[in-house]
């Protein structure tokens, strides 16, 4: 569907279409009434946003922090002021964005003065184009069409052509999911869950023939070449196309089940995974578009006046795939993979419009990064290239051409960051907001989900609440071509969600469990860490784990604060316990502790993600020299900076770290202390039974089980002993 910014023509389209079938009457009736239900949803949402608003600044400033900029705000004296300031900042940011800060990607702007791309609009329109007979792209469709059996076995056709019944939808809305476990060679422990009757158990294919995967024709030949970089001599010659990890992941993706893989590692398997999901997304888009183009030709050739219901092949809006990634560099790599997969050989280069502009806005200058900046390998891998976290771009693909910066309503794939999505979706009351383009998303890919915990998780939740809703306008759609599943508002039951993260986290689990409704069911990889990151602590150090007793999850925050103030802090008030670093994962806990320390007039300094560079240097110097007894230190500062803090003699983990390797990293900072009086070093960790996942990642599953079952509230482990 080409973008139609002219409201009157959109209205006239809807007036002519509305005379067709009763189901269209119902749909069009909802187009103007849905704001009521939307406002209810927004009211529910506003409460959670009030608690998360003070973290918003980090989204745009997080990436600046890496560049050693002095951006960011000095800490406010109390939490309410911080929340008010950032709330205003976010509204201003949203308004600026709507006014055209990234206008080229903003569908609400219609035709943008600074970037008009009219010549490509008709070229990439699905409605006005037909299948090129000489194109190899249509061979897959022809091959399938000649064999009814092959056609019906194509996972794409099976998934999209399945007609759900009302009782099945009711089941998915009300009944709990049933689950089963399976062990796969490379992925490990898998949990399959589904509400509908049990599907046949999925088994890992030891070998995969590319021709059996029903890949779109050009991908069969280009994928082995593009993926060659990940293939080692260890892979059998009979398996030339996939690594063992890719093979098992793609087997699941290709069945259109939801997938949660929490073992993505930027250093080891990150690019392997990116290539696998790019193959799946592109395969889906090419098949969907071919179906539309093929049906265009059939409709053109049919007799006038013939009314045929067989051509329902699209959604209410054109975008089919939404890819959420944290930085511009990730979007750059994805587009490069798409181009590589579409180019059959050197002679058949695909036409990519706006490529130069894309390279300028999403590429990076290697000289921007200071050459003497030494950081851990995983940091370098995550923060490579252009790390701006505010972007969105539409991509249209048609046969042998790709269009970058396509208006969203003319795009097949949207690549965006959570903040980029947040500023266009907007909030209730904003004049310029748009989320209709999310109505017919068929594949949602959320990569590197753990990084959004460090940016602003509220943006991810906001997106999940606005995906697959009925559009508020018709956007010039031909209702006779829209699938019944979209007309029935059942899009969310057909949407496949692929979620990749570096860790297990309750918030990420919650999105997968509460916002994914795929009728095909879900697959989650649930491997248990046998040894924790404590085994990587090299200094000789006693680790004291102190358990909090909390009746429910909501009370943990207050109980932890009270426990710290009453039981832990008094032990460290003595001057002999100087050089104490307090590691605080949550910014809200940090503000609360900072205010308490000020009220009690304790001798302390503090560093958070908003502290200016001069303030950071000053705090580190005071702490090293012992002029300040305590240092309050936030996890997000460590994530974005990874400075070595010198002078630590006593460590307090106010809460277990989100990333388990941060535990050993912080502990090992003690060896940076020159005087080496390690006999006085201490490490204290606060935890509750609700921290089981984080605890297992630090101490291992066996110790975690002992600690949670034991009646003792204090557990001691010593590392670094000879």
Automatic annotation (TrEMBL):
Boundaries of every UTP25 C-terminal domain copy:
533-717
What ranges does the record list as Basic and acidic residues composition bias? 1-10, 298-313
Q: Which domain of life is it from?
A: Eukaryota
Query: Which segments show compositional bias classed as Acidic residues?
Result: 37-62, 71-87
Positions of the UniProt region annotated as Disordered: 1-157, 294-313
- Asked if Ribosomal protein is a keyword of the record, the answer is no
Q: Which GO terms describe its molecular function?
A: rRNA binding; U3 snoRNA binding
One Gene Ontology cellular component term attached to this UniProt record is: small-subunit processome
Pfam families hit by this protein: Utp25_C (PF06862), UTP25_NTPase-like (PF22916)
A Gene Ontology biological process in which this protein takes part is: maturation of SSU-rRNA from tricistronic rRNA transcript (SSU-rRNA, 5.8S rRNA, LSU-rRNA)
* UTP25 NTP hydrolase-like domain boundaries: 256-523
The alphabetical list of record keywords is:
Developmental protein, Nucleus, Phosphoprotein
Q: Where in the cell is it found?
A: Nucleus, Nucleolus
What is annotated about its quaternary structure and interactions? Interacts with CAPN3; the interaction is required for CAPN3 translocation to the nucleolus.
Instruction: Give the UniProt family note.
Output: Belongs to the UTP25 family.
> What does the function comment of this entry state?
Component of the ribosomal small subunit processome for the biogenesis of ribosomes, functions in pre-ribosomal RNA (pre-rRNA) processing. Essential for embryonic development in part through the regulation of p53 pathway. Controls the expansion growth of digestive organs and liver. Also involved in the sympathetic neuronal development. Mediates, with CAPN3, the proteasome-independent degradation of p53/TP53.
Q: What is this protein called?
A: U3 small nucleolar RNA-associated protein 25 homolog
Which species? Cariama cristata (Red-legged seriema)
């Amino acid at each position: 569907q080409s973008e139609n910014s002219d409201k009157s023509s959109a209205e006239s389209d809807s007036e002519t279409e509305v005379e067709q079938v009763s189901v269209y009457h119902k749909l069009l009736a909802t187009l103007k009434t849905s704001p009521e239900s939307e406002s209810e949803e927004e009211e529910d949402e506003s409460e959670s946003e009030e608690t998360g608003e003070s973290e918003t600044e980090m989204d745009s400033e997080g990436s600046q922090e890496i560049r050693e900029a002095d951006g960011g705000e000095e800490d406010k004296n109390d939490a309410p002021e911080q929340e008010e300031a950032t709330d205003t900042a976010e509204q201003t940011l949203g308004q600026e964005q709507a006014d055209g800060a990234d206008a080229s990607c903003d569908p609400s702007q219609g035709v943008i003065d600074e970037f008009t791309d009219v010549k490509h609009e008709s070229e990439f329109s699905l409605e006005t184009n037909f299948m090129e007979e000489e194109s190899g792209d249509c061979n897959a469709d022809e091959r399938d069409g000649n064999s009814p059996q092959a056609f019906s076995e194509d996972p794409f056709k099976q998934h999209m052509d399945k007609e759900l019944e009302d009782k099945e939808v009711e089941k998915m809305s009300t009944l709990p999911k049933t689950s089963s476990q399976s062990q796969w060679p490379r992925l490990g422990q898998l949990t399959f869950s589904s509400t509908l009757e049990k599907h046949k158990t999925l088994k890992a294919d030891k070998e995969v023939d590319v021709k059996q995967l029903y890949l779109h024709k050009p991908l069969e030949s280009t994928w082995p070449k593009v993926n060659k970089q990940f293939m080692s001599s260890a892979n059998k010659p009979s398996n030339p196309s996939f690594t063992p990890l890719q093979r098992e992941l793609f087997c699941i993706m290709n069945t259109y089940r939801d997938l949660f893989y929490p073992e993505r590692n930027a250093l080891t398997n990150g690019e392997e995974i990116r290539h696998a999901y790019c193959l799946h997304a592109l395969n889906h888009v090419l098949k969907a578009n071919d179906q539309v183009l093929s049906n265009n030709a059939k409709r053109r050739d049919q007799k006038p006046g013939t009314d045929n219901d067989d051509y329902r092949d699209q959604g209410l809006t054109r975008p089919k795939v939404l890819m959420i990634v944290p930085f511009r560099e990730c979007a750059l790599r994805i587009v490069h993979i798409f181009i590589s997969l579409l180019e059959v050989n050197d002679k058949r280069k695909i036409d990519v419009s706006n490529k130069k502009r894309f390279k300028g806005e999403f590429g990076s200058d290697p000289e921007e990064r200071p050459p003497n900046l030494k950081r851990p390998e995983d940091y370098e891998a995550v923060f490579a290239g252009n790390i701006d976290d505010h972007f969105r771009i539409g991509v249209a693909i048609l046969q042998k051409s790709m269009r970058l910066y396509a208006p969203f309503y003319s795009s097949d794939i949207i690549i965006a960051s959570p903040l980029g999505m947040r500023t266009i979706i907007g909030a209730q009351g904003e004049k310029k907001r748009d989320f209709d383009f999310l109505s017919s998303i068929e594949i949602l890919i959320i990569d590197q989900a753990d990084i959004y915990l460090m940016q602003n998780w509220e943006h991810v939740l906001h997106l999940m609440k606005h995906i697959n809703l009925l559009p508020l306008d018709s956007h010039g759609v031909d209702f006779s071509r829209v699938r019944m599943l979209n007309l029935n508002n059942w899009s969310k039951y057909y949407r496949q969600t692929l979620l990749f993260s570096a860790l297990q986290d309750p918030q990420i689990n919650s999105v997968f469990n509460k916002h994914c409704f795929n009728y095909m069911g879900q697959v989650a990889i649930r491997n248990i860490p046998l040894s924790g990151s404590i085994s990587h602590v090299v200094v000789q150090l006693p680790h004291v784990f102190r358990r909090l007793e909390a009746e429910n999850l909501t009370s943990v925050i207050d109980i932890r604060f009270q426990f710290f103030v009453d039981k832990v802090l008094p032990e460290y008030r003595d001057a002999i316990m100087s050089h104490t670093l307090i590691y605080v994962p949550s910014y809200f806990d940090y503000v609360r502790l900072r205010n308490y320390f000020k009220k009690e007039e304790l001798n302390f300094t503090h560093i958070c993600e908003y502290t200016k560079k001069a303030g950071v240097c000053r705090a580190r110097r005071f702490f090293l020299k012992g002029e300040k007894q305590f240092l309050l230190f936030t996890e997000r500062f460590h994530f974005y900076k990874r400075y070595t803090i010198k002078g630590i003699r006593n460590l307090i983990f106010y809460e277990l770290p989100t990333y388990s390797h941060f535990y050993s990293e912080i502990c090992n900072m003690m060896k940076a202390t020159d005087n080496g009086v390690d006999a006085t070093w201490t490490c204290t960790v606060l935890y509750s039974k609700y921290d089981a996942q984080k605890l297992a990642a630090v101490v291992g599953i066996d110790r975690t089980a002992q600690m949670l079952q034991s009646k003792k509230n204090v557990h001691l482990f010593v590392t670094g002993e000879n």
